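Bench notes, afternoon.
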Amino acid sequence: MKRVSENWYMGTADAVYQNIYSIGSEQPKYVIILSGDHIYKMNYERMLKQHVDAAADVTVATLTTDPAESRHFGVVDIDRDHRIVGFLEKPRQTDIRSPYDPTKISASMGIYIFNTDVLIPVLLKDAEDPDSSHDFGKNILPKMLGDYRVYSFNFVDENRKEALYWRDVGTLEAYYEANMDLVSVSPVFNLYDEQWPIRTHQRQYPPAKFVFAESGRMGHALDSLISSGCIISGGAVQDCVLSPDVRVNSYSEIESSILFSHVNVGRSCRIRKAIIDRDVHIPEGTTVGYDLEADRERYFVTDSGITVVTRDYSLFENPVTVDYFTSE
């Protein structure tokens, strides 16, 4: 994306700066800045209430984590009044400890509430700095500590499980593991909590359908999440997440995989530990995830052995065989 300059987004602050006119046109009193690749359950109203009560200029959401994880986070130094007095960007080790738990550190979650009349001038100033990497955690927030009231809000997990749940899924491995957790018998992240439901846009598809009950050709799914519009037509699915409008045709076996919307898997395919991009058509007889060296010649394979099949892969030579059937 690029909105107000000739450059693509160069950092988290630059991404907001390039949408500064949208903020100005709405004229909000406060701006909440969120990360798009994090998974968690959080009540932002609590954070905003603390921000207002503290007369803060900026509030940073933080979570407590083990000091050994410091190299993966921006570590926040917080005083007893919850005011932030320092930042360390991914230190190998640190003696700083959290006021919320003295055995842990407080790490920035990349979630911020700014007063708009504070946010606009600091974004403009940062945009003019040629030495800045235009990042909130690295550049903007550390420079604000002396002149502004910057506070921490300790993360309150609405997931309500024994272990705090917050995941950064900015890598393929992290994204895959988060999805595989969802298909476990008792997932850590609760999609079925009636007290804290997840709201999202739902396209109107018919219910998922499982057809054919013949020996060796039985449409079924085990330990999987199957979305609306999916048809498992004589194929076998296990430990998978199927997005809306996925078709799995006869004699195919899919295991430990994530299939995006509108994927069509032809007959007699074998797919294991894969991520299949939306609108991909897998030709009849294709094997994915069983020979990683062969996969690397056609697809992208991560260091941990996840095969990623995108729409530009080179196996469009053979048509997909689709099972047609009546509703009887």
